[in-house]
Amino acid sequence: MAADGKQFSGQAYDRAMGRLSRVAGARFLEWLSMPTNLRWLDVGCGTGSFTELILERGAPNAISAIDPSDDQIAFAKSKSSAKQIDYRKGDAMSLPYDQNEFDVAVLALVIQYIPDPARAISEIARVVRKDGTVAAYVWPGRAEGHPYRVLSDALRSIGAADADLPGNRMRTTEALVNLFASSGLESVENRTMDISLAFDDFDDFWSSLRPASYSHVRSSDVDRLKAALKRSLSTDTHGRVSYGARAIAIRGRVPG
Fold first, then answer.
1. Which domain holds residue 112?
2. Of 38, 154, 229, 251, which sits most exposed with the smallest number of CB within 10 A?
3. 3-state secondary structure the chain
4. How high is the pLDDT of residue 165?
């Protein structure tokens, strides 16, 4: 799903948020520690970056993935891994699957963008078998460790307004726990995951930023923004950029 809830280039999204999704996704799968040979569903799969991680690390029996964006589903289907994944266009709040079709369903960096998260979790629980797992992870607010917090700081330093961060109401542990518990899921667990981000150089870092996050900045101020970011980021002797971020993960069990 597009990070701002809109459809845009699958290739552009994969270049930007796709890499961040893979870094956090690997930690998320480690935490879930699911058995092999399961039937997986990736809800809001976007360009399939996290879906591919499930394929690589989860040894699934079968994997399905769904997203409302035509462009992102088309991009996902263009990847070589697509022949092993059932990609479909569809809505998380009205899933085109049968009851008990999956062992585990996940939402990677997407639940905060769904218009009615409670309805979506209810739908997801419907298609997951009894005692199956429903899990999700999100980036928190920028002040709490979102990967774009360095961009927010740089925008403020040049006197530019920070772009709105969609889905703020679902970017806290409390909100996620309440959502899962009120949806009837049992054995709800959560954890905070510290993530290390690394980039080859500043240009590599800049390409990881979603253009919508700074498109409101006047073109004449973009160079000032880049300079502020360069000053704030730590680089090693080879020019590599690294810093830390944080994600919030949650899981629950479908009642037996």
1. 10-140+167-196+246-253
2. 38
3. CCCCCCCCCHHHHHHHHHHHHHHHHHHHHHHHCCCCCCEEEEECCCCCHHHHHHHHHCCCCEEEEEECCHHHHHHHHCCHHHHHCEEEECECCECCCCCCCEEEEEEECCHHHCCCHHHHHHHHHHHEEEEEEEEEEECCCHHHCCCCHHHHHHHHHCCCCCCCCCCHHHCCHHHHHHHHHHCCCEEEEEEEEEEEEEECCHHHHHHCCCHHHCCCCCHHHHHHHHHHHHHHCCECCCCCEEEEEEEEEEEEECCC
4. 61
- The domain that holds 124 is classified in CATH as 3.40.50.150
Residue 145 forms part of a structural domain: no
pLDDT of residue 212: 74
pLDDT along the chain (256 residues), means of 10: 44 62 90 97 94 95 96 94 96 97 96 95 97 96 81 90 70 95 97 90 87 84 93 90 92 96
Q: Report CA torsion sign: 6, 10, 16, 17.
A: positive
Residue 159 inside a domain? The answer is: no
Residue 87 Rama label (left phi>0; alpha psi -120 to 50; beta): beta
Number of domains in the chain: 1
- Is residue 126 a part of any domain in this protein? yes
CA distance 14 to 112: 19
In contact, 78 and 9? CB cutoff 8 Å: no
Query: Phi first, then psi: what are they for 220, rounded to 5°?
Result: -70, -15
CA distance 70 to 68: 7
Whole-model pTM: value is: 0.87
Phi, then psi, of 196 in degrees rounded to 5:
-100, 125
